[in-house]
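Hi team,

Below is the intake form for Glycosyltransferase 61 catalytic domain-containing protein from Arabis nemorensis. Please confirm the fields before the structure is written into the shared record.

FORM ID: S-0412
PROTEIN: Glycosyltransferase 61 catalytic domain-containing protein
ORGANISM: Arabis nemorensis
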Amino acid sequence: MKRGSHVLVEEKSATNAGKTAYLVEKLRESVIFIPLKDYRFSNKPLEGHTWFMSSLYDNQTKGEAHFQEFPSKSSKGRLLCLKGLDEHDGSRNYYALAWPEALPINAILQEGLTFVCNNHYDYGNLWHGLTAAIPFVSWSLGNQCENPQKWVLFHRGELRFGMGHWLSEVITANYGQEPEFLRFVDEEKLVCFEKAVVMRQNEGGMSRERRLEVFDLIRCKARNYCNVSLSKSSKPRIGMTLLMRTRPRSFKNESAVINIFKRECKRVEGCELKVSYSNSLTFCEQVELMRKTDVLVSPHGAQLTNLVLMDRNSSVMEFYPKGWLKLAGIGQFVYQWGANWSGMRHEGSWRDPVGETCQFLDSDRRCMSLYKNGRIGYNETYFSDWARSVLGSVRKMKDVVEHNIGNGLLDGCMC
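The structure came back. Fields below:
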């Protein structure tokens, strides 16, 4: 080839490189940030694709929680980028998609896997926080048990930087490390994620079979983490636990309630009764207590989330103050759902017909502010018959000690 040809090739190569650089620069500048919270959907946050990242649609794999993954085929290989510092208005926090070869100039690349969660409820509440974490555990279970390096938490598009201690311990047990929350330090400095999984509808879309698998894993990991022994000698034949509350939704006469269940437990060979308060127990003490519990007796409240740590087919007895059935909405049934999802038996509920008198009709929603934290009375005859029936069904089970079908064995977890 002549020297002139070399020059032409070099010039053409330089021209192509210049065009490529020009296009990359244009791609950098073309990244458009959209508010995380889309007020057009604010009246129906749980319908369709929700108000969080409303321009994008979820992956709806059969039986799995709805999720988004970046980069992916649906994102055309683009990465998720976030910016904003607002803890009060999700419309002032933003998201965008960008090609990895053309990230915006002021972007920081977060390496590894990041879990991004938008929760409509509270990360401090045991149940609400757990339902936000469940789909991430499920995703990991279906993806070679991959662990996140970071978490980004939103509540309705508003940034959050932590979760309740109980939930944090569950996450630590599952992933072998404490959850590390990404903090955005500059309103204009954006973060793009090498890999991100986004959940914005909690456990929505998960089949019951998948939920059972996930709760088996959570239970197993918690027991491993707390080094809870599974030896037969460490567990009574039938363990009944009264998990009490203090102040709101506590029993008015605890000693009377305790005596009723103590009497009925004594009538059943091998039954042992324990009375505990979850707020006085460490996480691992709660795990150990639930390992020894076949019948959980407790007022409605966050402490009942511990039911997921019992062996499968264990029983739950739940109690409510006056007024909840008419006024509390569907949220009052979360522990019935939780029992079903995790393989427990919800044995029904007792609702106190007696309580404070509301100045309005009992069906008036304004009364709920009075009834919400009401205290709970007792009915000795009903409680005795109910306890006798539940204990009788537990006693009839072929194998009370090992009825968790092998899903809680130490060192035998699925991940």
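SUMMARY LINE: The two ends are 61 Å apart (CA to CA).

Thanks, M.
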